[in-house]
Amino acid sequence: MPRKTKNRNAQGSGTIRQRKDGKWEARYTLGRDTGTGKQIQKSVYGKTQSEVLKKLKQIQVSIDNGSYSEPTSITVAGWMDIWLKEYLGAVKPFTVRSYSDHTKNHIKPCLGAVHLQKLTAPAVQKFYNEKLNSGLSPKTIKNLHGVLHSALKQAVLIGYLKSNPTEVCKLPRVEKKEIAVMSEDEMASLLDDIKGHKFENLYFVTLFTGMRQGEVIGLTWDCVDFKNGVILINKQLQKEKKVGGRYGLVSLKNDTFRKITPARAVMEVLVKQRKLQNEQHLKCGTIWNNKDNLVFTNELGEHLAHFTVWKHFKKIVRKLGIGHIRFHDMRHSYAVISLQSGDDVKTVQENLGHHTAAFTLDVYGGVTERMKEQSAKRMDNFINSLVV
């Protein structure tokens, strides 16, 4: 006859019995189902009574101290699929695509077959190290870590894991690249060269507001307040990251809108842009297609493509002999101009839409250091004037 110990009916308690096939089974209680009121019972198995008893005691201890996680047979690959499908509802499509690509190309091939609850920190660390040695950049490793860390964090929250193994992994150091900014002479040359260009107004507004490319080509007229001289930046034009991907207006990078008060010259250029667009509208008549009320469009009122705007900009800077300057470097140039002109870091941070002033300082630390040196020289001149 199979032997059996008595179930005390308390949470974590259990019974042990020998099955007909000779194996031993321990059943334990996890409380009651809130819907049906019935007991929730689970089982562990072993070859001997002592083995099963040891497992049962470990489970009872973990239930008592709150570290218990329900056994699951899901693999890392299986969990990543669930996480990508069910837990990214508030994430932008472009970001979802990036997460999916990292999972498909790197995480699944290396860690996908591992049982989720058997994934260890050393295994994850080895994964990062091998990817780095294979030629991936430290920044890409950091991005892979971000995806895996977020997925496993959710697994901890729902009880699939006791702890997140990525928490204790060491990431390779990401070397911060020196930002490229335009000198005053280069800015003057750029402004002179774009006169009459079809994107003259767009490039001018970008250079003197620090807007990101998606923000400036996604700017709509209802966000331009000519009366108060204010621009509301609350969305961006983004393309789906796939072949034939469609363009659409989406929320900002940090999901927070911002208001900027640009120089009067910027607002004057926007007045010119509105006049130009009205002329184009009249010329096109019924085929005009600016359904989103965009500030910057092509001659038919349609949205501009990121590549088109970038291609024309690169052609201009190459002709000027500053081909290393990217479209995004106009944003950096604006930030440096602002800081060197005396704007405080908090103002620059808010104008750029950075999450914190600390991040702004981190990006433009070199500029602020030069400003300190200039400040010291001015103080020396002042002291010398007093002494003399």
Describe the fold and architecture.
With 388 residues, the chain is mainly alpha-helical. Helices cover 48% and strands 10% of the residues. The chain has three domains: 14-65; 76-168, Tyrosine recombinase, N-terminal domain (DNA polymerase, domain 1); 184-356, hpI Integrase, Chain A, CATH 1.10.443.10. It is built from 14 helices and eight strands. The strands form three sheets. It has a three-stranded antiparallel sheet with strand order 1-2-3, covered by helices on one side. It has a three-stranded antiparallel sheet with strand order 4-5-8, with no helix packed on it. α2 (76-86) packs antiparallel against α3, α3 packs across α5 (138-157) and α12 packs across α13 (357-363). The chain is elongated, with a radius of gyration of 30 Å. The termini are far apart.
Tell me briefly what this model is.
The protein is mainly alpha-helical.
Secondary structure layout:
Layout: E1 14-18, E2 24-32, E3 39-46, H1 49-65, H2 76-86, H3 93-111, H4 121-133, H5 138-157, H6 184-193, H7 200-207, H8 213-217, E4 224-225, E5 230-233, E6 236-239, E7 247-250, E8 258-260, H9 264-284, H10 306-319, H11 329-340, H12 345-352, H13 357-363, H14 365-387
Antiparallel strand pairs: 1-2, 2-3, 4-5, 5-8, 6-7
Helix pairs in contact: 2-3, 2-5, 3-4, 3-5, 12-13
